[in-house]
Amino acid sequence: MEMDALSDAIARWIAPLATAPAVGILTGVLVVLAAAFFVMGSRRLRHTPERTLDRRQEGYTAELALGALERMGPLGRRLYLVQEVTLDLLFPAAYALWLAALTGMALGYLHPRGWWPWLACAVPVLAAVFDYLENALVVTLLLGVGRGSRPAGAARAAAFATRAKWRLCYASLAISAALWGGVLVDWMRDIR
């Protein structure tokens, strides 16, 4: 019964977002944020060829992370820090809401039975939680390396959060795509 209450709460939470207008607005927000990331990233790349830690989907070791941040130099680290405390405060919430809304829309069309399908809407939210944890740890690293310290524990935790974020994001995309595949199959049946 507790899981039914949880899935009902998730369904009620996602219902206002699981509409075409809301998904359209969230898509627009993501496009604007992606463009802003591109501009900020281009500016940072003029000063350092190092990839940011949060873009390393394959993960990284503490030594690799700390070395990369040192190679960025003071200006590269400052530009990365600005990105982390501006755009990366908005982006996780935006993509989590967008993926949850897409998943919720598909579930709305499919009318699934039981509580478990609605938990799929929580997967992108969990990805965003790991993204925010990663961001906080990366900020800690940027500030620490800038002052000459090498916080290896924070680097290991950031690496874990990065891998978890990417795996959950891909799981969210796969779940949503599978559900929309089910919607498409239902629509094709209705046409016949």
Strand-pairing-aware structural class: mainly alpha
The number of helical runs is: 7
Overall pLDDT, averaged? 89
- Global shape: elongated
Q: Beta-strand percentage?
A: under 5%
- Low-confidence runs (pLDDT<50, min 5 residues)? none
Gap from first CA to last CA: 39 Å
> Mind telling me the C-alpha Rg?
19 Å
Helix content: over 70%
How would a crystallographer describe the biggest sheet? none
Folded structure, characterized:
The protein is built from seven helices and no strands. By secondary structure, it is an all-alpha fold. Helix 3 packs across helix 7 (152-191) and helix 4 (87-110) packs parallel to helix 7.
Any chance you could write out the topology, listing elements then pairs?
Blueprint: H1 2-14, H2 20-45, H3 62-85, H4 87-110, H5 116-119, H6 123-146, H7 152-191
Helix pairs in contact: 2-3, 2-4, 3-6, 3-7, 4-6, 4-7, 6-7
